[in-house]
Amino acid sequence: MKVVVVTGASKGLGLAVCQALVVENYHVIGIARSKSTDFSMLQSKYPSTLSFESFDLSDSDNIQVLCRAITTTYGRVYGLINNAAVGHDGILATMHETQISETLAVNIQAPLLLSKYFVRPMLINQCGRIVNISSIIASTGYSGLSVYGASKAALSGFTKSLSREVGKANVTVNTIAPGFMDTAMTAGLTDDKLDKIKRRSPLNKLAESCDVAQAVVYLLSDNAKSITGSTMTIDAGSTA
Length: 240
Known about the structure:
By secondary structure, the protein is of the alpha/beta class. The chain has one domain: 3-Layer(aba) Sandwich (Rossmann fold), CATH 3.40.50. It contains eight helices and seven strands; from the N terminus they run E-H-E-H-E-H-E-H-E-H-H-E-H-H-E. It has helices at residues 12-23, 37-45, 63-74, 97-125, 137-140, 146-166, 191-200, 209-220, and strands at 3-7, 27-32, 50-54, 77-82, 128-133, 171-178, 231-234. Helix 2 links the parallel strand 2 and strand 3. The longest helix has 29 residues, at 97-125.
């Protein structure tokens, strides 16, 4: 059974990805600071194929230890879904430097380090998948999310270069750029802002977590073996 690591797994998109993958018979290792009730409920349905590791991804110094422990416990990782992210809302001029540091640590440094250590067993196996969850904000921008947008744009650039480094070993690296979804990340938006976003969409709706989760399933599958270095946008057409 192929082992897949999903960060930010306890809620929202990460939880939806975990659910989609266990249904497809992957052994999923969910990483988050704490286990949510919803994750526990899902785990009770798939006790042998859904595992949880508690870890704060802002703790960059111990990511190597985490990766080594996961490989020792569960075996060589086939897939890595870099989903965890923080997004402090506020204009750059007044944002505290600690918030900038946390955003960059979780949204950029953690995915780079996780990829660094998990790609090694993929290279040994001559097979693997890395999926980086970015955002349409990386290309469109959004007032009050400049640091978040910068971190997500960095992931897209990372995807392209890493895909060239590891492609000869049949390891693919891709980015998914979701639009605004009804998750904790958009909970702070007013109904008026969400309505404006919906009206920009040709489908007159927000993208859903399950849409992105199914894209992850596809990119992990053999059907996507020739797709690498690419960005898949899932936003109900709002950037069309």
